[in-house]
Design a protein that fits this description.
Strand order of the largest sheet: 1-2-3-6-7
Shape: globular
Number of strands: 7
Helix content: 25-40%
CATH topology: Rossmann fold
Distance between the termini: 31 Å
Order of helices and strands: HEHHEHEHEEHEE
Strand content: 15-25%
CATH class: Alpha Beta
Structural class: alpha/beta
Number of domains: 1
CATH architecture: 3-Layer(aba) Sandwich
Number of helices: 6
Length: 174
């Protein structure tokens, strides 16, 4: 929250803002239910504030879901943290109560179809947290470029872009 005025609002000529944050808020926080509920609420409030300020500055705002970070040996892996990630992602995909002009489901692009709490093996950079080159390429391939022409899309029901893998097919839903 301390840098966005400089790094977002202070950038001359910027037209768009993509909000993709949360792993490093959820992960290091204690996994107890009360702390995780507070982290989730704080993330939602921060997203709403940044989005509101960005819109006031004339930017279109896109929300991206928090990607999976579960997996054996990953320090952030915990059911309570996963619940926080899912709760925040549901809020994002729902348009963030009008915060977002469009949403992109990065989690669906990178998740293992058999266990959406972990990165798909082909996208896991090895730490179960960061995507590898193929994972970043999947995000690029799945990124809906048409959102840049969204203009004044109805904010109450922004377009949602989901991409998932089933069997041998990539599936897209708009």
């Amino acid at each position: 929250m301390q840098r966005y005025e400089r790094d977002l609002l202070g950038v001359a000529g910027a037209k768009y803002a993509l909000l993709f944050e949360g792993v490093n808020d959820i992960g290091p926080a204690s996994p107890d239910a009360g702390t995780q509920q507070q982290v989730g609420s704080s993330l939602v409030a921060a997203f709403a504030t940044v989005a509101s300020d960005a819109k006031a500055a004339g930017l279109q705002v896109f929300g991206a879901t928090i990607t999976p970070f579960g997996g054996e040996g990953q320090a952030y892996s915990d059911p309570a943290r996963e619940q926080t990630r899912q709760t925040v992602n549901e809020w994002i995909l729902g348009g963030g109560e009008g915060s977002f002009d469009a949403t992109i489901d990065f989690a669906a692009i990178l998740a293992d179809p058999a266990d959406p709490s972990i990165l798909a093996g082909q996208y896991d950079g090895g730490d179960h947290l960061h995507p590898n080159v193929a994972g970043y390429q999947a995000i690029a391939d799945g990124f809906p470029l048409d959102i840049f022409g969204a203009g004044n899309a109805t904010v109450a029901t922004p377009p949602k872009y989901r991409r998932g893998y089933r069997g041998d097919q990539w599936l897209f839903a708009y």
